[in-house]
Amino acid sequence: MAVFTTGEGVALDLPIARIPTRAAAFLIDLLVQAVILNVLTAGLLLLVFQLRPDDAWVATGFLLIFVGVLAGYPIACETLLHGRTPGKLALGLRVVRDDGGPIDFRHALTRGLGGTIVDFWMLGGFGAVAVVTSACSPRGRRVGDILAGTVVVHNVSRVPYPALAVAPPWLAAWAHRLDLSGLTEDLALPVRTYLTRFPTLTPEVRHNLGHALVIAVCGRLRVPAPAGYPPMHILAAVVAERQRRTLAPAVPPARQPVTSTAPRTQEAAWVLQA
């Protein structure tokens, strides 16, 4: 498993595809490429027998077919099938960006050219470079993945919707007035992890870790922590406001007054909701 932080600042855990599974998918794609190559070559031979062109044109035609199948096949498939090829589709694999998002033609083109030139064929020693780089990479990335900024993951089941924080109504107005520019991802990620795992933590860890995170967050934001509220309420309010601004920056928030009679002990009611 690896953590991918999306553009909305939400962390997703996705299983990384390793060498055995990727090798099996590659072999399936190689068989499909061989069939396509044989069909196109047979078609070119028919044209040669009928038209009898110059030898240079014949050699150029064979070269275009060979390079087109090797490089064009993965590029076209991953672009049209959103990060999949027939081999990856059969084994439940998918190419995604470093942040877990879908790839586009630019990523597929970089991966395809990197695989043809470096990883597998021209300089790759029939896949030796791809195997070595994937084995040395924590996320199993070959050279084409590194150049394109992509990762191959298992995608048999649908990627779950990211969990979004829900702000306590009595702290929504306070969070709305915050300047969140100081809350960087290195601090937001442990806060989201704390909120996600809150139901599984012991009461002592909930208090101590939450108190430490509140001090760190409020110190980074340069504001005093609201007095009398549990750490989880404060952290949920900050994260919810941050996600609201990221996901819907043009939508004004619903202003809710801060009430002094709000319940302050029902912490479990304000855990992340999917």
From TrEMBL:
The chain crosses the membrane at residues 23-49, 56-76. It is a multi-pass membrane protein. It comes from the Bacteria. GO terms for cellular component: membrane. The keyword S-adenosyl-L-methionine does not apply. Keywords: Membrane, Transmembrane, Transmembrane helix. It is found in: Membrane. InterPro entries: RDD (IPR010432). Residues 19-149 form the RDD domain. PANTHER family: SLR0254 PROTEIN. It comes from Nocardia stercoris. This is RDD family protein. The lineage of its organism: Bacteria, Bacillati, Actinomycetota, Actinomycetes, Mycobacteriales.
